[in-house]
Predict the structure.
Amino acid sequence: MGFSVNILWTDMSMEMQQIVKSLAKKFHEDVLEKTREQYEERYERRLAQFFKEHFDRRRATWHCVAGSHFAAQVTHEVTNLIYFEITYTRPSRHRSTQQHGASNQPLPPRQQQLKQAQQRMSEPSPKYWRVLLFKAA
């Protein structure tokens, strides 16, 4: 399984960036790992709500947009904007056996190529969400 947070643009302090990364990891563990809702449409809404609720506790109104495709132009307070990407890849479920029939002979080269191509096609592609979190001016 692969999980990563990649900051695309920010003017936040390093401390705030670390808070955002730790919250993304917490959300990943609480939602993706426990409920397996990563491919449901409402995931993006829950992701935005999670960040907004956490940052609203800081006695300010924050805005959060989450999705895989969106554009935005916002006015924000200085040092209060972060744009980042969360990438998640589910573990592969195929077995990598290269045996041919009951005899423990390796597959002929052409069949090996076909099997490898089928395995690559059956692997889940990474899922990503981009998140824009900011405090409006």
Observations:
- The beta strands are 2-10, 62-67, 76-89, 99-100, 105-106, 127-136.
- The longest strand covers residues 76-89.
- Residues 26 and 101 are 45 Å apart (CA to CA).
- The mean pLDDT is 80.
